Amino acid sequence: MKMTGARILLECLLEQGVDTVFGYPGGTILNVYDELYGFGDRIRHVLTAHEQGACHAADGYARSTGKVGVCFATSGPGATNLVTGIATAYLDSSPIVCITCNVSAPLIGKDSFQEVDITGVTMPITKCNYLVRDVNALADTVREAFAIARSGRPGPVLIDIVKNVTAERAEYEPLARREHGTSGRLGELMSRYDFKPPEPDMDDIRKLAAMIKESKRPLLICGGGVVRSRADREFKAFAHKIDAPVAITLMGAGGFEGRDPLTTGMIGMHGSQASNIAVDLCDLLIAVGCRFSDRVALKPDTFARNAKIVQIDIDRAEINKNVETDHHIIGDAKRVLSLLTELVPEQIHDPWKKEVFSHPTETHYDEREGTLTPGQVLTTIARLCPQDTIVSTDVGQHQMWAIQHFHFDYPGQLLTSGGFGTMGFGLGAAIGAQVSHPDKTVVHITGDGSFRMNLNELATEQYYRLPIINVIFNNGTLGMVRQWQNLIYQQHYSQTTLDRAPDFVKLAEAFGLSGFRVTDVTQFAEALKYALKCKHGCVIDCAINIDEMVRPMVGGGEHITNFMIN
Amino acid sequence: MNAQRNTLAVLVDNEAGVLSRVARLFSGKGYNIESLAVGTTDDPRVSRITIEVIADEKQIRLLSNQLRKLICVHSVKALKPQHAIRRELVLIKVLAEDFGQRNEIIQIANIFRASIIDVSKSSLTIALIGDESKAEAIQNLLKEFGILELVRTGMVALERGQYTIDEQTKEKGEFDYGKNVLREGL
Fold first, then answer.
1. What CATH number has the domain spanning A202-356?
2. Residue A62 at interface with chain B, using a CB cutoff of 8 Å
3. Among A181, A267, A327, B175, which residue carries the largest CB count within 10 Å?
4. Within chain A, which residues score under 70 in pLDDT?
């Protein structure tokens, strides 16, 4: 059937099973929005306050559901407003497809109104991107974009469509998703690699099984790849069969149950003593879906210096990138781990576990009378909220406290910007998660600095009746930067003190939400109980001491057990 | 590790934007591309890019790995100087205002097996095929006549013997894995 490019685009989204799109209209994408008018019953559009919010929401949708998140934006500033969101998704391997429209073909390259070369801008932060100038290529491009976004190591893909293509007509035949690899460009792309089905190499797996048998002090790292591959069950079975302690990276939270007796807690700059010391003492380190970022392997030369290091990853380019390894297995974590678990005999490592777990797996924070400490806030949230609560965070001290205090049980339960460290990520991500999980509690944990960056999305939260609970750790400062200034920069608190507007309670009310200011744990519990019952969005502004620190801390580039503070 | 001149051969889709995707991986990491040559292969859908950069072995490995991840890249090979034949075409326009000078330049060209491809009353244009040492040597000799213009195509290279860039090694299979799973994304 012949139809317009705009219609083809929406039909292709339906082929992919897209039910929700986050976006913001504008001049060049008008044809698409005009067509969307008649798709209201099949595609839900969430209008955000800013394109960055839309991109983070698509990301939050993707991380919490495991499906591809989709966002729309217009040309020029609409497209560039997505950039931070795309980079955030890229660094954390989150599958999103961003669709932007550009000026019409005759206006391209003439510095036309709201024109920008967005495929050029986003080249370093997308898995792949496309400029569509021919309506006949549109359907194939969209199919390819989705396949690339979700396959292998997932990531963001951008499709830029020139405006006239959305108006021009072409033949469109619906094609079921499993057929997409049989025709068009995608078919060609796939035929290039069909020399063997994607299966991990059994020799590599047997070699690792032999290494495990020899090891007396094995340690596992659960990285973001376990979460992306939804390999939590396989990881758990493997860890228990070889009886190895498990250190969890920030991105790996939810990949292995936080309450499991084998968990040593988070690893890295703010990792637990048990995790960091275990890395130093182990004789075999098996990292699953972990790229040894500079926040984990702070000093690559001495990282796991007594161990044989084995990397399991789907992305070959991660092998030996940051840390030199002794062995690697390429494949999907789910598949590799289940094959591996079948092969290894059961192990018991009681003396090694005893040694590792003699060190604390969590940080104990002092509680002081009459004040509200981060620990009190977080343990109250954990106590009062349902166990499957989805937690989104912004970036900074509150983020680290949240990870240290919560026990995440399943992949997609924690939404946090790990690699890119995007302040302002949390509220958008929470919107994406709440839209896709209307029955779950979604708590957005943020700081006063981060919250200020994208708080305009409170309007989105209110309009769509999303009962997201925003908990602000308000210490009147950019806490993590202040912590560095305190420890490394001789207490020169340069431009980090935020003794300024707004009044977050009035702000919440101005957006039609409930706002609370709390200064002790009883008030906080009351406010939270109300927020959990009221079925609309809330903002709880928690007064936190300006000098609270995240502990422990290892300085950047330092050996992993050189704790600056304990 | 010592940084030295390295040759990377890259097979890519013959499409708009592919060259900038490949080139930005070098510029984004602060490497200057010393030499670059691009052209289609025997398959018109596939282009071959030959890039030379100064880097050490580990850096070359990381660069190749990042290149291999790109969807538009089919295969990458770092060619070792001792196992590769490298050639480029250099065109040199030399000032030659009288018969004696012309004669001398033609003799030099003959020694280098270069050919004269254009003659005017006051200039000669020479085409030379070779590696950088040959080009440098002829340049030194022609300098005294006055070089008006010089252009080089950029180095192209092939591995000696029957080996090709398309060899199915275990490592290539591992890189293709990430792309091969495309079918699982459907």
1. 3.40.50.1220
2. no
3. A267
4. 194-197
**pLDDT score, position A44:** 98
Asked whether the CA dihedral A434, A448, A92, A307 is positive or negative, the reply is negative
Q: How far apart are CA A424 and CA A440, in angstroms?
A: 22
Nearest to A136 by CA among A68, A101, A185, A181: A185
CATH topology of domain B86-152: Alpha-Beta Plaits (3.30.70)
Q: pTM for the whole thing?
A: 0.96
Q: How close does chain A come to B1, measured CA to CA in Å?
A: 15
The yes-or-no answer to whether B4-79+160-185 and B86-152 have a common fold is yes
Q: What pLDDT score was predicted for residue A124?
A: 94
Say whether A131 and B17 touch across the interface (CB within 8 A).
Answer: yes
What count of Cα atoms within 13 Å lies in the side-chain half-sphere of residue A78?
A: 25
Out of B24, B65, B182, the one facing A316 most closely (by C-beta) is B65
ipTM value: 0.90
Is 70 exceeded by the pLDDT of residue B180?
A: no
Is residue B96 predicted with pLDDT exceeding 80?
A: yes
φ and ψ at residue A203, rounded to 5 degrees: -65, -40
- CATH code, B4-79+160-185: 3.30.70.260
Kindly tell me if the per-residue pLDDT of B158 is higher than 80.
yes
Residues of A marked active site are found at 51, 113-114, 163, 480
The beta-carbon neighbor of A190 closest among B68, B173, B183 is: B183
